[in-house]
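pasting input
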Amino acid sequence: KNEVEQSPQNLTAQEGEFITINCSYSVGISALHWLQQHPGGGIVSLFMLSSGKKKHGRLIATINIQEKHSSLHITASHPRDSAVYICAVTLNRDDKIIFGKGTRLHILP
Amino acid sequence: AAGVIQSPRHLIKEKRETATLKCYPIPRHDTVYWYQQGPGQDPQFLISFYEKMQSDKGSIPDRFSAQQFSDYHSELNMSSLELGDSALYFCASRRRAGTGELFFGEGSRLTVL
């Protein structure tokens, strides 16, 4: 079992829909990162969370430390949001960063 | 604001050749990570450095070596290149103290022919 699990693996939605991507982890972490990667492009850090909730524009990230679960929400989704969204965690035992396998999001105009 | 700089952005090599990738972390960042991302795959951890010392090693082949220099930039050296080494190589940096937020370079795309 992977230490970081994301769901769904693939998601197609219409422009304007509310999007939720989930991440569960099974290890002790000091931080959780949500990353975005456009096709053929580099990785951009969207959020780093150790507790609670963060908001940036149309993106909201939440984390529940007790349940070892985080969600990334996109409100009023737009075709330019189409990308792979990756959840990664920083392990508190050795500072290593473990990546989830990503969620491929496709927003249709 | 300065970001993580990687060079070269694109590199084409032939089998059995050698390649060197460079990563310049954000100023005052003391930790550097190297990742390899094959086509359609998630990033795989190769190696990391903290304060110029190797801090962790992942699935890095013996043909690869890396180091972090006194100015905190890091280089990934790859020898006897194989076709399977074709990938996007990412560098990420962070400062362990403070927020510890992770910043990624745009990657170096290596193609081995």
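fyi The mean pLDDT of chain B is 91.
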